[in-house]
Amino acid sequence: MLPSLNWRPASLLTITLACGFVTSSRANPIAHSSHNIIESVPDLPNLDEWIADEADIALDALLENIHPPDTLPGVVVASPSRKDPDYFYHWTRDAALVLSVAQMVYEHGVDNGGAKDTMLENILWNYARFEQHLQTVPNPSSNIAEPKWNVDGTAYTLPWGRPQNDGPALRAQTLTLFAQSHLRKHQNTSLITSLLYDSRFPSSSLIKNNLEFTSHNWQEDTVDLWEEIRGTHFYTLMVQHSSLVHGSRFAEEMGDIGAARWYAAQSRKIASKLEEHWSPEHRILQSTLSRTGGIGYKSSNLDVSILLASLHTDPPSLFDHPRHPFMPHPHFLHTPYPPWSDEVLSTAMKLDHVMSSLYPINNITNVNDLPIANAIGRYPEDRYDGIGTSSLGNPWFLTTLAYAEVLYRTAVEWSHQNWIPVTDVTLDLLKWIGAFHPNSTNPHSHTAEIGKYAISRVPVRRAHSPVLFDWIIKHLGKKADAYFRRVQLHALGRESGKMAEQINRVDGKMQGARSLTWSHAAFVTAVVARDKFLGSLEGEVGEGMGRYTLGDQRRFASLKLQLLKKR
Ligand code: NOJ
Ligand code: NOJ
Predict the structure, then answer these.
(1) Strand ranges, E, within 379-479
(2) What span, in angstroms and rounded, lies between the C-alpha atoms of 249 and 460?
(3) What is the pLDDT of residue 324?
């Protein structure tokens, strides 16, 4: 099934060679001094205002890539680009992640069941019907884990990294959340039972079929989300776990009690399997274990997919309260490794550190005295330049945005729980975000106070140290904003703000598939996390954090209106 290391269609090889800008940037990376970027973007406009404008662009781009001309209803193209590279296909993973943004807005509602809510609902049903159709199409994976489809609903039959078992899990998860939202709004089970969940076994209904596949096949090795390595992957297991946790709850709602127990039992087994990915020696969650094929040069096993896993297992919601009430046993949580866990944060810091010297553009650390965080790529050894793999990898928009989202979500979680854990990892985190300078000599500073916590190891409680607590939370927000500013630096004034897949590591220009749908979905979810973060500051306005502190409803209303005003 896995013929060679090169799974790209042969034509891409020639495209790589034809791709002049890649060659020239590689020839002399230093000659392209990072000053180029600063000169071309002398002034970065206010971040809040830019984010509001860019959210508008992102939402439009996202909707444009759903069922564009020449495609069937329900198709989500990965990008409108049909050449260099050809991304005009329906990828199961990209589609599920993009549709989870549409589901987020649908769940919250926009106009009380009016035209806009109906439009969103139609997008989601069309997606469901298209996916249902794909389940019946013979394909090279011979199962529902085929990763990529033609936009006319036929199978893509050229060599590819297949199967990709994260697909059925993500598809099930997005549709489960949609089905639950739909039932809450319409109380009409017949629509749901006919297409999405019929409680029969074997089942031809979409969610159940995908939960059955996931619960029976999670032990199989599979190709990873980057479509390059076969083995056991943290990302795949994480989304399989969360889809079964969400699915188990939904099965119970649908009266399918035996299935609910089976999905929950399998999710618990996956949770313990996931623990094997932690390397105590390197203090990272390793992306792949038991590699059986595919590329062999990914020696660090350090991959941004760990952060993506922590985000994609807890899909965004426009509500302030958690989607599911408190669950007593950690194995019932939809994610055993949330963004604020020591394991995810430790991995994030290690990867950021490697990336900081890997990409020349990361020499830029501030513009106009405002901090710019590192541009982040998939993993250090990456060779995929957006067209082929005979070059060097680059930072990506969606992976840089993942850092912002992880940090905002961490700040919100700590803010809600009113305490901050003091561990080796969180102490490193405080140094990394500039809140803790262990060598400072000022005995009255916040950093001296953190020094005392570093010795006692008791948590920083808001009730006990309110000023220090806020200082830390705001530093998390500032670091997260610095990742947004990095995205701003490379998106502003280029391609009308539509984010491609990659950012050239040397000249900072966009590279690879233009207007990548997933880049825009990642932007929206990071903005939602930022909105919640700003809401959690409770009216206290940090530097450069002013514009959105109007109260949740108005902020979310602006996001929703942005989503819908053009259609
Ligand atoms: C295209 C894939 O989409 C990309 O992720 C991968 O790096 C290359 N092919 C090489 O396999
Ligand atoms: C390449 C990425 O590696 C993969 O994750 C994605 O699904 C495809 N591009 C399509 O965007």
Answers:
(1) 419-420, 460-461
(2) 35
(3) 52
| pTM for the predicted model, two decimal places | 0.90
Residues 6 or more apart in contact with residue 303 via CB below 8 angstroms:
234, 287, 288, 351, 378, 379
Residue in the block written with tokens 């989304």: 239
- What is the radius of gyration, based on Cα positions, of the chain? 23
d(CA 28, CA 452): 48
**Cα(114) to centroid of ligand 2, in Å?**
35
pLDDT in tens, 133-191: 999 999 999 999 999 999 999 999 999 999 999 999 999 999 999 999 999 999 888 98
526-557 confidence digits (pLDDT tens): 999 998 898 888 644 443 343 333 344 445 54
Whether ligand 2 lies within 6 angstroms of the CB of 520 is answered as: no
DSSP 450-472: HHHHHHH---EETTT-HHHHHHH
Q: Which residue among 93, 164, 228 is best mutated to probe the pocket of ligand 1, counting the most ligand atoms within 8 A of its Cβ?
A: 228
List, in order, residues 6 or more apart from 402 with CB less than 8 Å away: 304, 307, 308, 311, 376, 522, 526
Among 226, 298, 396, 517, the mutation site with the greatest number of ligand 1 atoms within 8 A of its Cβ is 226
C-alpha distances out from residue 420 to 268, 336, 462, 470, 540, Å: 27, 18, 8, 11, 19
Q: In DSSP terms, which residues pair with 503 in a beta bridge?
A: 510
Angle between helices 47-64 and 552-564 (to 10 degrees): 40
Closest CA to 318 of 92, 563, 74, 58: 563
Q: How many CB atoms lie within 10 A of CB 448?
A: 15
Ligand 2 centre and the CA of 30: distance in Å? 29
Q: Is the C-beta atom of 94 inside 6 A of ligand 2?
A: yes
**Cβ-count burial of 42 within 10 angstroms (0-12 exposed, 13-18 middle, 19+ buried)?**
exposed
Q: What is the pLDDT of residues 36-50, one digit of tens each?
A: 554 565 578 899 889
Query: What distance in Å separates the CA atoms of residue 527 and residue 518, rounded to the nearest whole number?
Result: 14
**Distance between Cα 6 and ligand 1 center (Å):** 9
pLDDT at 18: 23
- Residue bearing the CA closest to ligand 1, atom 9: 8
Q: Is 146 a catalytic residue?
A: no
Q: Rounded to 5 degrees, what are φ and ψ at 105?
A: -75, -40
- Rounded Cα distance between 470 and 14, Å, is 54
By the 10 Å C-beta count (0-12 exposed, 13-18 middle, 19+ buried), 157 is classed as exposed
Using a 6 Å cutoff on CB, does residue 148 contact ligand 1? no
Considering only CA atoms, which of 550, 522, 528, 537 is closest in space to residue 107?
528
DSSP 44: -
Verify whether residue 70 is a known catalytic residue: no
**Gap from CA of 296 to ligand 1 centroid (Å):** 14
